Amino acid sequence: MVMLAKRRALMLAFCTLPLAGVMRLFRSGEGFETNMDALACGCILACMWGCLGQNERWQNLLRSRLFWAVPIAVIASNKLNLVGGPSLAFGTCIANVLIAVSVERFVRYHRTGAAGLLNVRAAVIIGTLSYSLYLWQQPWVVFMNGGHGPLQTFPLNVALAGVCALLSYNLIERPFLRLRKRRRTAE
Q1: At what angle do helices 156-168 and 130-141 cross, to 10 degrees?
Q2: What percent of the chain has pLDDT over 70?
Q3: How far apart are CA 120 and CA 111, in angstroms?
Q4: What pTM was computed for the model?
Q5: What own/partner pairs with CB < 8 Å and gap ≥ 24 does 128-134 have?
Q6: 139 upstream amide cis, omega within 30 of 0
Q7: Mean pLDDT to the nearest integer, 70-74
């Protein structure tokens, strides 16, 4: 995505949405190709952030009471995922798009009611560690090769994933973020 021009990257991300749905029809949800639409929605949101912010009708919708239909629709689309078939394939895609819409609303209007819950200290810490948690939940939470060892039992597995995420964030991610900031400042 970084190597493509913004317009091509946006086109690729939009094409990914139905493609991931089709892949879910043929695969059980395992693998990148069946989940790539979640990442594509984030890419679309990042690419369109400025233009969405300038679209007055869109912003009025986000601020309106009608917006609350979006999180309700996300929950409802999860029920479609239980059905399987086309509902699973495209219900997940719909949920991902609606989650991106919710992210935009709560980030752009972070001082409003429900967005305040997302800004409590615990939520901010979890959000900061989210990438590291995503990486480190795998060995502790997912049962590798069908095994279920003592380190993969709740609540020890959650604690171990948290400790690994903290270490990873502080020893790897933060130093690279500082390096990126220094490089950008030098440019």
Answers
A1: 140
A2: 89
A3: 12
A4: 0.71
A5: 128/169, 129/162, 129/165, 129/166, 129/169, 131/169, 131/173, 132/164, 132/165, 132/166, 132/168, 132/169, 132/173, 133/161, 133/162, 133/165
A6: no
A7: 89
3 state DSSP class of 111: coil
Instruction: Please answer whether residues 113 and 154 qualify as being in contact, where contact means their C-beta atoms are separated by less than 8 angstroms.
Output: no
Distance (Å, whole) CA 35 – CA 31: 7
Relative orientation angle of helices 85-108 and 69-81, to the nearest 10 degrees: 150
Contact 166, 132 (CB under 8 A): yes
User: For residue range 86-141, what is the model confidence (pLDDT) as tens digits?
Assistant: 767 788 888 899 999 998 998 888 877 777 777 788 888 888 998 899 888 888 87
